[in-house]
Each structure stands twice: as C-alpha cells, then as structure tokens.
Amino acid sequence: CFQGNFDVQQMTDRQVEAGGWLISKLTREYGLSITDVVGHKDMPGASTACPGKNFGMKDVKNAALEFINPNVKKATKSENVKILTGGLSPNMRKEMEAWLKEKGWYYKIID
After folding, report:
1. DSSP state of 12
2. Tens of each residue's pLDDT in the chain, 111 residues
3. pTM: predicted TM-score of the whole model, two decimal places
4. How far apart are CA 17 and CA 80, in angstroms?
5. For residues 47 and 17, what is the distance between their CA atoms, to the nearest angstrom?
6. Rounded distance, CA 14 to CA 81, Å?
7. Helix (H, G, I), strand (E, B), or coil: what is residue 80?
C-alpha cells in the first residue's frame, strides 16, 4: 500500500522504486505475474478511485520489472520514504529494511 492521496499528490521517485521492490518480492513469493498487479479500483465490485489518477501504476510495474531483471538500472534521487508494513511477514520487513539501508535511503517504518 502507498501512502498519499494520488488524486491530488504526485508519486515520488522513492515511492515508485520502493513499490517496485516490494511488488517484485511479492510476485516472486506468491508466484504471480506483473499483470496480476492492479489498483483497488480495478478489483471486481470496487467502488473507489484508489489508487488515484496520479498513481503511476505503469512506473511502479516498470520498477518491479527492473528488480526482477537486475540488468536494468535506474538512477535514484535522494528523498525520504515512509513505508507501511501492515501485512508484511517479519522476514520480508527485514529484507525491505536491509534494501533501504543498502540504498542509503532515509526511511520510517510505519506498522
């Protein structure tokens, strides 16, 4: 889940990259395809605008594909990132924290 109102706000590069990392991990862990990743509004019976008109689903999916194929690299910008961890296993949370530290990112974990 991403923090923000993406009907009003724009996604940061950090959110796109962190989301891509998480999606790449979850798709591998659960045997999913990148086409299985959809917004809440795309679920059957949904009556929401979530994730919002400014949510970069294509960018997040491309970031996930870059993690799945490590031969593709992108430059990053220095920003802060907040990560909501509800629903992540303790092991995946540790992996995420290690990845953020390796990147040199400033982050705050929110349970």
Report:
1. P
2. 688 899 999 999 999 999 999 999 999 889 888 888 888 888 888 888 888 999 999 899 989 988 887 665 444 444 555 565 566 778 877 887 787 777 666 666 665
3. 0.62
4. 12
5. 28
6. 6
7. strand
